[in-house]
Structure to design on (122 residues):
């Protein structure tokens, strides 16, 4: 990865979301390192650190959800839930025997019927 060798600028300005996501990514990298570690060398301290990092990632995820109002927009009377309810359920009619064949109309041009007055008797 080229981002590993890149040194971050301490004067860099970003959004709160960017900072939380970067911190979350760093913590997830730490969890990944501890998970891939040779399990015969894992100590109790490593397990405790992994547990703390997992909790921190969960808290950052919840914080991001809270800041983005995701729960409010998807819960009971949120805008997204209301739009889904308004869209309704799409129901495709079931085919029955012969329903895929178009019915023949008796009013086709050129057709004559027995009781038709316009039919010629020649």
């Amino acid at each position: 990865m080229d981002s590993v060798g890149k040194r971050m600028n301490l004067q860099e300005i970003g959004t709160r979301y960017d900072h939380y996501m970067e911190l979350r990514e760093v913590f997830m990298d730490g969890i990944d390192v501890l998970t891939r570690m040779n399990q015969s060398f894992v100590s109790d301290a490593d397990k405790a650190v992994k547990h703390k990092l997992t909790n921190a990632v969960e808290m950052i995820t919840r914080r991001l959800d809270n800041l983005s109002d995701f729960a409010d927009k998807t819960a009971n009377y949120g805008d997204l839930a209301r739009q889904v309810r308004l869209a309704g359920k799409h129901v495709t009619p079931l085919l029955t025997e012969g329903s895929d064949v178009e019915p023949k109309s008796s009013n086709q041009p050129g057709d004559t019927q027995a009781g038709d007055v316009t039919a010629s008797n020649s």
